[in-house]
Amino acid sequence: MTETKGKFSNWWEKQTGAPPKTWHKILITVFLLVFLFVFYVTLDANKYKAFVHVVDGKSVIGVNPTSEALDFGDLAKGTSAVRRVDIKNGTAIPMWVSVIKTGDLGELVSVDKKSFVLKSGDEEKVEFSIYIPASASIDSIYKGRVYVFKVPTFGLIK
Amino acid sequence: MKTIGNILIYFAIVGGLVFGLPKFLSWALDTPYPMAAITSGSMWPVLKKGDLVLVEGVKKDDLAVGDIIVFENKERKNFTIHRIVKLDDENITTKGDANFNEDTSISYKEVIGRAVKLGSHQFRIPYLGLVTVYASEIR
Questions:
Q1: Tens digits of residue pLDDT in A17-31
Q2: Bridge partners of B106?
Q3: Contact check, Cβ <8 Å, B45/A135
Q4: Which positions, given as ranges, span the membrane (chain B) (predicted)?
């Protein structure tokens, strides 16, 4: 009777000098599943470039957000602007939505809902507000990025 | 036996850091409040929300316009970290860099200390004050 080994077992044995044990296989499978899950969530996230131009004169609110950018336009010190983004769950399972902002602009922008659960087919508006403080530099363009991650809840978060 | 010894050493180091470091800083910086967390964006961009700053005890004569000081805010019943914009023999007036208005003037006895500088830069440890920020938001 001949024993057949998978490619993985052969590779493992070549590397370590011993065949993989069951717990090795379980651990590697779990690691791969977690990696694929994180990869999917990152790939599926809505990503927006965000920017604002600080001006000395009159504020000019930027164009409405596209699917790629949150444009706050030209804003003077002491003024504010609001941008809204629609988040829709087009899947059959509930999603936990988490909004993360980065960069210089991320420090100036506040979000009304940082995280929430979105049921299947539901839609939610997320509001981004910016206020230009007195210490902002005139003629500077503050940039940042906003990520909207959607993580399947699997019924764990209500 | 060796493992138990390692665990004991580990706990001694962690305990020493948690309990000893604030006491050491308090002694070295000559203030009962040697550390402060930034809980608002009023000093942006020099100090950002979530930063941890070191505070040093300071004498009245050593304070100058431009210094960032920590003082007891009696209106809000907490400590505030803002920059000195005016000072005379009796009072100090401060303002947050990101704010448009000056704060109500305070007396010298309300000053807790001055934020430590590293050369010409303000010393800050990003994110280390986030625990305090979350705690203040929960309150």
A1: 888 888 988 999 999
A2: B92
A3: yes
A4: 7-29
